[in-house]
Amino acid sequence: MPRNKRESFVYTLIMCFVMVFWMSLYNIYLHSGAFTMEVLKSAWLGLPLGYFCALILDWFVVSTPAKKVAFKLLPTFASPLRKVLTISSCMVLPMVFFMSLYGTIEVLSKTQEWNLIFIVWGSNILKNLIMALPFQLLIAGPLVRKIFRRIFPVGTIIA
Length: 159
Description:
The structure is a single chain. By secondary structure, this protein is mostly helical. It has one domain. The protein has helices spanning about 5-30, 35-75, 80-110, 115-150. The longest helix has about 35 residues, at about 35-75. The chain is globular, with a radius of gyration of 17 Å. It comes from Candidatus Enterococcus murrayae.
């Protein structure tokens, strides 16, 4: 896990990229019904705006309250693994909430069926939570932490 603000920022850049790209692939696949090169292309082309929104949400809206909640849930003697799992879970839940709204607006801007916004958004929250939480805890989190520490050993990013 990051140990200072600069490490946290670099870690967030990497984690947001992995999560946004994966969740974009997943959502486009759900809407198209098949995994094709067109799905990959669409996810890649939509990545910059989704990535930017996720970074802004993560850094300025979600991170601080999520960490406060996580540390209230954790006993002072919690293991590092328990801390990582709790913080990650507390981050995923609001990110799914907000990024599902982002995806809903993106889809409805093409269809112009704005009367369906709450139905589509609620459906997206459920579908995204089913994918995002296990992906974050089992794949993205461990992978990004490993990559992060390989590229930036402890003490190389100074506060």
